[in-house]
Amino acid sequence: MSHIISKTLFLEYRYCPKNIWLKLNKRELLDKFTLSDFEKHLAEQGNEAESCARGLFSKGVEVKSNGEGACIETVQLITSGVKTLFQSTFIVDGFIARNDVLHFDEQNDCWDLFEVKGTNSLKESGERDHIEDVGFQVSVLKRANVRIGKYFLIHLNKEYVRDGDLDLSLLFKIEDVTEKVNERLAEIEKQMDSAREYLNRENEPEGGCDCVYKGRSKHCSTFKHSNSHVPDYSVHDLAGIREKKVTELIENGIFELNDIPDEFELSDNQKLQISTHVRQSPIIDLGSVRDELDKLEFPLYFFDYEAFAPAIPMFNGYSPYNPIPFQFSLHILDVPNNEMRHVEFLHMERTDPSHLVAEILDKHISNKGTVIAWNKSYETRVNEQIAARLPQYNSLFSRINSSMYDLRDIFQKQYYVHHGFKGKTSIKKVLPILAPDQRYDVLDIQEGGQAADAWWRMVSPVPGDEEKAKIAKDLKIYCGLDTYAMYAIWKHLDDLIK
Predict the structure, then answer these.
(1) Span 28-41, mean pLDDT?
(2) What domains can you pick out in the chain, each with its CATH number?
């Protein structure tokens, strides 16, 4: 059975050919392709942007069928004189294209193609290559003998700030990419033909996949299946390792950290990571840890936001993907060795929580002390955006941001390196090592993407009171652990230097 190659399959093939062959032909591996909550959120926001962008076109008609039925419906709508189609579908030469918008240019007697992307700019390379994306659609339309004129990319305008009803003409930018696509079309079509041939192979392609030459974060979902010889903790996990360095090591048959030659050029951080792994013991610069903790002034405020970032601004004062701070947790330690106080906030409605957040923080964070976050750039950015929406609280958020300390710095600066971190400095990697009694893996909500999706569901009309109460409880436990985890890590470090 031959596979019809969609744009999505083609773009995934461009990232890792064997991974997509396995997706199509090895049913037992399908669980490897489950999207993360963050990936689901991006997909949902992309769909939301596409749906909203349809408002730029009047009298458009959506093709609602699938497969061959959608092709028939497309032809019927064109024949009946419809000038704007959403999701027009063509299948030809083993490829299928579903177009976001196909609009007839009566003056030039041709169809213009509009592709909608839920991004804030035009991307011309990398994993999100919009030119390659549009080029695939153009190729299929040309193979189907559609008289095509210009090709446009519609994306969100990151400078747009909502004020009242959405202004679609300002929310979106429309860029003519005809020339850029045509310059690359021959190469894109060559790659399409290669993808069709490769993905329709009867037998599994031999050997591993090319992800073996990339860092761990860029490995495909079936990496372990294709590269079973690679250890779970390998040279791919070296912090900040570049593909050139990975390739050099792999081509020399070096996979284990222990086997990297002493003369191999690495950063100081990478050398420390290898040293802790070889020794199986931590390396701690107590003097530098002490200097960092001496910067902290009591009270200590351990602080964390959870936020939902929609592509289409929901409330006044928001731009595309501005985070809605629906929740925060604040553990407060007034003096050393005292009992902590806990302040928490969870917004229970689908409205802008900015005022409530500002009021509560103003009440509980004084003009003395240190606000501690993990990767503080996120919290400071949310604070800046709230202040922009609520100028009367500008001094509050300026004060909070100026007193903020990033506890992650101690680990990123390599003052505390542990073999158990495996080169990572996220709180979920550090916490199990320094405070093993505190665990995320037993929670129903375990990461920020899950939290955002859970809140969005909680404030929708769908769940009943019992389910809403369960979601609210899970959200509070998760966000509360984020700030308690920071306290537990700080306490471990404080005890260490004493």
Answers:
(1) 69
(2) 35-199 (3.90.320), 210-279 (no CATH), 290-497 (3.30.420.10)
